[in-house]
Design brief:
Elements (H helix, E strand, L loop, with lengths): L6 H15 L4 H10 L2 H7 L1 H4 L4 H14 L6
């Protein structure tokens, strides 16, 4: 249960890092990640993803979103 306390801050950090990588606003990055299942991916695989660097998580988000129709690369 204690790890769940950090899930939202972790997802927030990933959204911000994704936004920075693509020079997007945080709101635009959230909308993109939500639309192309990146947020769901982070939520579902938090236990594994949070053990990696944020940069690795952003790389994974790019792959997941591309597989779901996203065009950012």
């Amino acid at each position: 249960m204690m790890a769940n306390k950090y899930k939202i801050p972790y997802i927030n950090a990933c959204i911000r890092a994704f936004a920075a990588r693509f020079a997007l606003s945080v709101q635009s990055a959230f909308r993109y990640l939500y639309r192309f299942q990146g947020i769901a991916f982070l939520d579902k695989f938090y236990e594994v993803e949070h053990l990696q660097s944020i940069d690795d998580a952003v790389d994974d988000l790019i792959i997941v979103c591309q597989k779901n129709g996203g065009l950012l690369a």
